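Researcher: Re-running this chain for the archive, since the previous output was lost when a drive failed. Same request as before.
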Amino acid sequence: MDIILGRARRSRSDEEKRAIVAETMVDGESVSSVARRHGINANMLFTWRKRFRLEDAAAVTGPEAPDFLPVAIKDPAPVQVTADRPVVELDFESGARLRIFSAADSRVIKSVIEAMTRG
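Model: Regenerated structure tokens:
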């Protein structure tokens, strides 16, 4: 006879999973704190995040899909870096350079970097 102690597995709908994943996107929240609050393993939550990100990316296809076109900037102007206007420059293997100023929106930066590193 085997005696197994522990909790029974709980089945969650995709809607519940998406709601829990959305909590991890709130500023100041961590995946581990959200996982603890809902009584799930943080690794499972990371798996759900990845799954929904891939599904959402696959859903954006066809004529509605955003197109990224190659862009070349000739003779870029020098950047004036001051204490109130810091800048971060990222050089990509492709030779592209991305300049990020402090006023840039983090979601836009993330989208641009993901688009530039897709391969």
